[in-house]
Amino acid sequence: MNKELKVMEPKQYDDEIDLYELIEILVRHKWSIVLTTILCTMLSLGGALYVRSKTPNYLMKSILIQQEDYGLKGVNKINIDTILLQDKNVKRILEIEPIKAEYLENTPKEKQNIASERKFLQEIITISKNDKNPKEISIKIEILADENSSKDIINTYIDILREQDNLADVIKKEKALKSETLEKTRLEVENIQSEILTIFTKDRDIRALKPEERMEYIASKYPDLNLRKSEQEKYYNTYVNELIRLDSLNDKIDSIKETTDIYFLKGQSKAKLILVVGIVMGLFLGIIVAFLKEFIDGYERRYKK
User: What is the pTM of this model?
Assistant: First the structure.
């Protein structure tokens, strides 16, 4: 039994991996590992630089849309989702020459139409809402030709949004109507006052009354006239207050407020990841090459024997 164990022990050691032997193999073929790693690193560096050159950069701007109708009829709702759905807005943005040139260069002639123009702009323009404050909007533009043309896109987009806001026109129209009605009411009040003055001069009974009793006398003897007077004075005061309210809205006409300047945003590329993966892969392949060469060298030695 002991003899069998002694015979088996060498076999067990033969199957075990000798760490020192592995290290010796790696040291012997160190230049193969180094050269393979350098080659893979150079290839990955080239790929990283290419990816980095193709990674787009952006310009961004944030705006705040604080729109209310203030109880007025006919106020348009500012809708950022419909800007590029309107053909006139697409054409207007593409009036920016460098952007138009990029579109023509990247779109085959047979596919140049309003649909491809819209798709082109949708790919370079990103509109997003703040999750915490839906009224805060970010406009992100991919820089294609140059920064100035991208700034022009942002400014044009904001101009289009502002043109949707017709609050100022509605206020102006409403003020004109209220002013006209107020003038008619004022004239009616003056006519009623003239009628009351006429009563004062013709009705002898009223002359004997004290000043504070005269209006009570008119209210009881001429109820229709008194009712007309109360109604018209009420209308007059209502229209005056409404005009004051409309005037106060002038400070709130600008529903779109620019909360930030246009700023540069660097695109996130995978260049660093590609470089790191290339180095690791180079080292791994170098080790494989080292063991492969060791295997070939061993095979050749055995064959020569």
Answer: 0.65
